[in-house]
Amino acid sequence: MDIQPYTSTETLAVGRPWLMSMLGIEANQTVTLDLTAFDQDLHWTPASAFQPERKLKSGIPLGKNTSTGLYEPYNAVTNEVQTATITGAPTGGTFTLTFSGQTTAAIAYNATAATVQTALENLSNVNPGDIKVTGNAGGPYTLTFGGQYLGDNVASITATASLTGGTSPGVTMATTTAGGTATASDGTQKFAGFLFTEVSFYPGSTKVAAPLMVHGQIDVAKLPVAFDPADAPSGSNTQFVYKV
Questions:
Q1: DSSP assignment string, 42-67
Q2: Backbone angles phi, psi at 218, to 5 degrees
Q3: Global pTM?
Q4: Largest distance between two CA atoms of the chain
Q5: 92-99 and 107-108 strand pairing
Q6: Strands (E), the chain
Q7: Cα torsion 6, 26, 16, 216: sign
Q8: Contact at 8 Å (CB) between 133 and 117?
């Protein structure tokens, strides 16, 4: 009898560089995501003229909100929130922001939140999704940290003002929420699993069904957001093997 060797190649999947093994993925569960809890760049990529759907990144760690029954980004520790307030009612001039030794280009006194966010993302130590800036043009601006600074007690941003007009104009910085000091209490502080595949959704959608990976082997360094298994509290899903 002529027995020929049989060779097969197992491909984990395009878009899942964080998945180390196919073992255990048959245990995936279908859950419903609350899309309003996910952020652009950090969790999903925007639509384009040629691709109208937004796309959630695979590998996002998730937790279940016990009030809504929906799944949101895992929230073990509090993200830092800082505010920048322009004082003195200036009518012109600029200011800069300095974070961990890196200083932005000059920002106009009446800049939009998106402009401030772009200025910060142009720093060598800030990636898209690391700092989300919201607020009205001219401030106050709310700076919420995430990405590589998820759950970290980060350094305070400082401001240098070159503003004109008004009365003694300046920029005041304050830390309104210190990172890493507390946990959520809505259920999302308990890690449930990872988003197994990329998930497409249209702008305006608030919910979408998705596969939750509840068992497997994970390369933590390749996840789309910062995740430290040591942060997962008692009662969280522990059915994973991690490569750090």
A1: TTEEPP-SS--SEEEPTT-EEEE-TT
A2: -125, 135
A3: 0.67
A4: 96
A5: antiparallel
A6: 29-34, 44-45, 54-56, 61-64, 71-73, 81-87, 92-99, 102-103, 107-108, 131-135, 141-145, 158-164, 170-177, 193-195, 199-201, 207-213, 216-219, 240-243
A7: negative
A8: yes
113-135 residue pLDDT tens: 999 999 999 999 999 889 999 99
Classify 202 as helix, strand or coil.
coil
Whole-number average pLDDT of the chain: 90
Encoded tokens for 21? 């093994």
Q: How far is CA 97 from CA 62, 81, 115, in A?
A: 33, 15, 12
* Burial class (CB within 10 angstroms; exposed 0-12, middle 13-18, buried 19+) of 186: middle
DSSP string of 169-182, one letter each residue: -EEEEEEEE-TTS-
Phi (first) and psi of residue 141, to 5 degrees: -110, 135
